[in-house]
Amino acid sequence: MLALLAGCGGKKRAGVRVPVPPPPATQAQTPGQTKSPAEPESQPLPVPRNARPIWVETGLASWYGPPYHNRRASNGELYDMHRLTAAHRTLPLDSIVRVTNMKTGSSTVVRITDRGPFVEGRVIDLSMAAAKAVDVWRPGTAPVRVEVLRTPRAIEDGGRWCVQIGAIHDEEIASTLKSRLTRRFQTARVLQFSSPVGDWWIRVRVAGDDRLRAEELAAAVEPEQGLVWLVRMD
Fold first, then answer.
1. Which of 15, 86, 133, 149 could form a disulfide bond with 110, CB atoms 3.0-4.6 angstroms apart?
2. pTM of the entire structure?
């Protein structure tokens, strides 16, 4: 199996960016009460004040909203930009993390529900609500500290992994790459899909979704367009 990975080219791995149970349901409203549907979802997630992080990283945060709003996130939920969620490439889905703006000190707690950001140099993609809570919304990006407080699965071990390539701005180039990868890595499953903003992506799932095989494939691929990312699927 691993012999198939030899001979494709080098690099373009941007990181080696996941949720626990959803936030509790909001309390029933008494007659006459009116609340914006987004309001309950934008409250901080319940975690103990003295919760210690089990894993920490620092880097640049960005945020995403339209046109991803109400589209399916990686954990199967519909993405709601008014909820306190985020995307990360490698943390287990449904992990609970605290995000702190290292310039302003503002922080919030989010649940990892999606995969991204797929932009070099960024470590986490916040929902609009989370971006507003930590002063990322207006500037667009900011340096942050990401502290994992709770996770449903081990961070360093196990997991299901794939290789994702993009963004590719030409459909023909994406199709050619898909065909080439399919021929070269015959034991892998190669998928091509477009994003809501019109660019193209290739996802390669290796046998058993094994991390080591995915890492080797990521190191072997050098596309004409786009970067290569190691991504956790669960």
1. 86
2. 0.80
